[in-house]
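Notebook entry, structure prediction.
Reason for the run: the old model in the group folder had no record of what sequence produced it. Starting over properly, with the input documented here first.
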Amino acid sequence: MLITTKIKLMLEQEHHDKLLETMKQYNAACNYISGFAFEQSQYNRIKLQKLVYYDVRDKFHLSSQMTILAVRKVADAYIAGKAKKKKEYKKPKSKKNVEKTLISFRETGAMSYDARTLSFTGLELASILTLDGRIKVPMKISPYHQGVMQGKNIRGQADLIWHDGVFYLLLVVELPENEPYIPIDALGVDLGIKNIAADSMGESHSGDAVNAVRHRNAKLRAKLQAKGTKSAKRLLARRRRKEARFSRDVNHCISKHMVEKAKRHRSLLALEDLTGIRERITVRKAQRRNQHAWAFAQLRSYIEYKALIAGVPVVLVDPRNTSRECPQCGHIAKENRKTRDWFCCQACEYAAPADNVAALNIRSRALVSVPNVGVAI
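New structure, fully documented this time:
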């Protein structure tokens, strides 16, 4: 499988300025190409390149390969927009519904590189093409990413991004996948807010500490925004991605634990298919921040890619009534869950923590959907 690694570039000021100017010229060229493509309704990469190649080189002083990559970026953006609109309008009433809109690119938007414009000397140096020729830049790679990249094949193009005055390379690395084993059981996982994850074996990952951190950050942001001084704005700027990094770290830890547990018990991982959950449910105004703050899709994606590497099968099941159905007798009723934390069946009086009951129901549905589970090898 392919994973993306984020590598920090350690640039001197001179090299930083060269790279930033190259990025700005590249995105200016992309905007020029996009305007031309929109006016001419020409979104084919090959045809578009023939029409704008020499003009772009003259106007923006890009190299031959940079020009080709800029055309490719614009064409791919319009193709992606077309695919998105086709999905949004399955049966368009008129052509107006699928008309394209002009795509524009940020001055410091991501810049594409490939093997002709970017090369490496081991894991220490990157040779990057700029408007003023190539520069050799030291790379800062974490021990984890060094282990991932060592001896691996770096595939396709890389993206150069600029965040908070720092340049990073997003490199795609190919990792071997383990052959999925034949599971002998299923591990159901219920995702939530009070408990971020609860499994069918009775283990829960509480969200209390996580929610406390989020509430504290929200109060601090409100206080700093109300203060409005320069120092307050600087602190806000420094902290703006702190909560997102915290969220990613927690999701990585939980997903790693779940995959290891499933592999240890030779089970498949059963998750709820929560696609579009935020559009399907409504909550009170006071609960909106909690409802929309945590990245459930991110946690699911982390579980899926870690499971793919480990060879753990993953199954998605319908989440409807998983917290209202009794795992003993199958009775479904809203009254079965009178409180958020506790489940008590009105038919057979089976009682247990509500999130773990939901995980048991997810496990049962996975066992039904995968008929070969339970056959030991």
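Summary: Confidence is low (pLDDT under 50) at residues 89-98.
The old model has been moved to the deprecated folder.
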